[in-house]
Design goal:
- The two termini are 36 Å apart.
- It is built from 12 helices and 7 strands.
- The chain has a 7-stranded parallel beta sheet with strand order 3-2-4-1-5-6-7, with helices on both faces.
- 37% of the residues are buried.
- The protein is α/β, with parallel strands linked by helices and 297 residues long.
- The chain folds into 2 domains: 239 residues, Rossmann fold; 43 residues, no CATH class.
- Bound molecules: guanosine-5'-diphosphate and magnesium ion.
- The site of guanosine-5'-diphosphate has 15 residues, from helix 3.
- Magnesium ion binds next to helix 3.
Length: 297
């Protein structure tokens, strides 16, 4: 990617990140395409950014450039700056085939960033063949990111054992690959054992796919090679098992749901205060009327 293209992309992404629902709907619709989407999620401090910065080069061996999106729940603006994560991905800064961007999740309902599907479509139209998306994963976010990516990595670190119980019905069931980062620290073996027992109990959601467990310390080369291979194996599996098709359908439903929910928020905020005092059923119908009125958008 030339510096000019980078600047153009940065402008496009900034515009998208701030676009309202109606602005986004007026954009030309691009196809779903075949850009690989890989989510990297896990608790704060688990080692996600460190891992991504090491994994990124390994993922570059094929054709096409690689984009990294860091969804930052704390950053107040969606500028091009990498903010807190800059430190962790510095080594990629001069890599011509890698583009890094942080996005604020702000008050986005699903804990991701507004217009993320459109941002991903834009990256695809700029010729990226793969996107790695870092996000802090818990609760709602886990489900939102699951719907958005083909392959989901869950990054945990030793000592996170006590969090496993809490995660059981959520992200642990949704992830395709478990990564134990900071495997140089005590407790890695115990975490492997716990993940193995979780894996046995996994329900139909992951039918036909047994999430591999990959250990990594400081993203050393050998484990990154293994992780990259497991990602490829999972990508191949989603294609063969037609999971890819299912994922695209799910993704479209999720996209419309998030647009509608944002639009409801916009409508409610635009209502005069008095309108909010109506009985709930009347208010509900008033919002529905607004939603159905295309002239209002
Ligand atoms: N000992 C050790 N520390 C690590 C490892 N990976 C990351 N860290 C450190 O853990 C902290 C959080 O890492 P970071 O990648 O920013 O985690 P994130 O919040 O999940 O993105 C940083 O201080 C890293 O240097 C690892 O494999 N071993
Ligand atoms: Mg990070």
């Amino acid at each position: 990617m030339t510096p000019d293209e980078r600047r153009r992309l940065a402008r496009v992404l900034s515009r998208l990140a701030d676009a309202s629902v109606s602005e986004v709907l007026r954009l030309p619709q691009s196809g779903d395409g075949h850009c690989r989407r890989i989510g990297v999620t896990g608790p704060p401090g688990a080692g996600k950014s460190t891992l991504i910065s090491r994994l990124a080069r390994r993922r570059l061996t094929g054709e096409g450039d690689l984009a990294i999106l860091v969804i930052d729940p704390t950053s107040p603006i969606s500028g091009g700056a990498i903010l807190g994560d800059r430190i962790r991905m510095e080594e990629l800064e001069n890599e011509e085939r890698i583009y890094i961007r942080s996005l604020a999740s702000r008050e986005s309902r699903d804990g991701l960033a507004d217009n993320l599907p459109d941002i991903l479509a834009a990256l695809q139209s700029f010729g990226f063949s793969e996107v790695l998306i870092e996000t802090v994963g818990a609760g709602q976010v886990a489900h939102a990111i699951r719907a958005l990516v083909d392959t989901l990595l869950l990054v945990l670190h030793p000592g996170a054992g006590d969090q496993i119980q809490a995660m059981k019905s959520g992200i642990l069931e949704l992830a395709d690959i478990y990564v134990i980062a900071k495997a140089d620290q005590p407790g890695a073996k115990e975490l492997v054992a716990e993940l193995r027992s979780v894996r046995k109990e996994r329900s139909v959601a992951g039918a036909g796919w047994r999430p591999p467990i990959v250990l990594s310390s400081h993203g050393e080369d050998e484990s990154m090679q293994k992780l990259a291979a497991e990602i490829d194996r999972h990508q191949a599996w989603t294609t063969v098992s037609e999971r890819w098709e299912d994922a695209r359908v799910l993704w479209r439903a999720q996209h419309v749901e998030s647009l509608l929910s944002r639009r409801v928020g916009e409508v409610l905020r635009a209502l005069p205060r008095d309108a909010l005092k109506q009985p709930i059923d009347e208010l509900y119908r008033a919002v529905l009327r607004e939603l159905a009125d295309p002239g209002a958008m």
